[in-house]
Amino acid sequence: MPLIEFTNVYKVFGRRPQRAVQSLKDGVSRDDLRNEGLTAAVIDASIQVEPGEIFVVMGLSGSGKSTLIRMANGLLEPTAGTVTVAGENLTSMDAREVRAVRRDNVSMVFQHFALLPHRTVGENAAYGLKIKGVNRADREARAERALAMVGLGGWGGYLPGELSGGMRQRVGLARALAAGTDVMLMDEAFSALDPLIRREMQDQLIELQHELDKTILFITHDLNEAMRLGDRIAMMRDGRIEQQGTAEQILNDPATDYVAQFVQDVDRTRVLTASSVMERPVAVLGVDQGPRAAHKLMRENQLGAVMVVDQNRRLRGIVTEEAAADAVSTGGDDLAGVMTEPATVAPDTAVADLFAAAAEGPMPLAVVDEEQRLLGVIARVMLLSALGVGTSLPDQPPSAYEPAVEGA
């Protein structure tokens, strides 16, 4: 069940907004409404943010993304449609009930820190807990833990004015973490930071997400930030959602010309991963087979090498055609003497990080999971494909495969 859900949401500012919604449904343009003094900030938006994911809404100024997040915490009420957060339908609640959801279920990280300048770092981190009525000892302990999580252990007694911009943003993040809510909303949270600090904060958020598994709705105008952070991304333009999907889906299969133009300058090697470019092996060899079977399999399939797996599909090694032929000529009957250890990578390894491993030898890279099960292989030509050179990327490669294993 999604923790955040927008269903056919509209937000129109101006007189008689309900009538404007119907006009939009009837095909009246956003520009036509603007000529009438109405602003259609969000038009027919539907998204679902699943538990534990970072969902990024990306768009340029005026696209509607900030209006969208303000409806997620009840600061703005939709003109039409429904907004549900943590199982609560905000659009059917009165102001008191919305405040309760905002207090108990949602925490917010703002672009410009929103710290109280005359309260200490510790007091700022604990402020949301104070609003909830948590006793002083407990809120101080929780705030101290949250500050330690973001690398500010020992800074609780300082004032915000004594901290750098990056440190102040960490205090804002600590405040959201200390609140202990399942849902975090982050509105251009890193946009005010210089590029180096911004990258550090992105790294911090990724690390914290792996540890805490929060549900995060993240707003940004920066496409590289969106693709780096987002498990899924919604791209907005003029109030409408142009496309939703993973970074790889958006990069490889843009739904509109607008999206295609937007992603054309993205560094593909930083977005695509090993699982994006790997291929299902043409054939693999069972570990109990011998050099003769290996040589026969490679000749039949015109392969220069073959991966060797056990009964559980765990990778045991790689055999080259030359090594198998030599073993056959000398009467060898055991793969142990001819197998070598292939270079392996995890499926989430960025393509940019594959080139060094690929350069170490002529053999394909083996993509393996945490239990060393073989998921796919990556030949050098696929790395060129990732750069847009030569052939195109494969259609949706599998996350696992079930090949016919010779002798397994």
Spans of at least 5 consecutive residues with low confidence? 389-408
Major beta sheet, strand line-up: 6-7-8-3-9-10
What's the average pLDDT?
88
| Cα-to-Cα separation, first versus last residue | 41 Å
* Beta-strand residue percentage: 15-25%
Explain the overall architecture:
This protein has about 400 residues and is an alpha/beta fold. The protein is about 35% helix and about 20% strand. It has helices at about 15-25, 30-35, 65-70, 95-105, 120-125, 125-130, 135-150, 165-180, 195-210, 225-230, 245-250, 255-265, 270, 275, 290-300, 320-330, 355-360, 380-385, and strands at about 5-15, 40-50, 55-60, 80-85, 90, 105-110, 185, 215-220, 230-235, 240-245, 285, 305-310, 315-320, 345, 365-370, 375-380, 405. The strands form 4 sheets. It has a 6-stranded mixed beta sheet with strand order 6-7-8-3-9-10, sandwiched between helices. Helix 7 (about 135-150) crosses helix 8 and helix 15 (about 290-300) packs across helix 16 (about 320-330). The longest helix has 18 residues, at about 195-210. It is globular and about 85 Å long. It starts with a strand and ends with a strand.
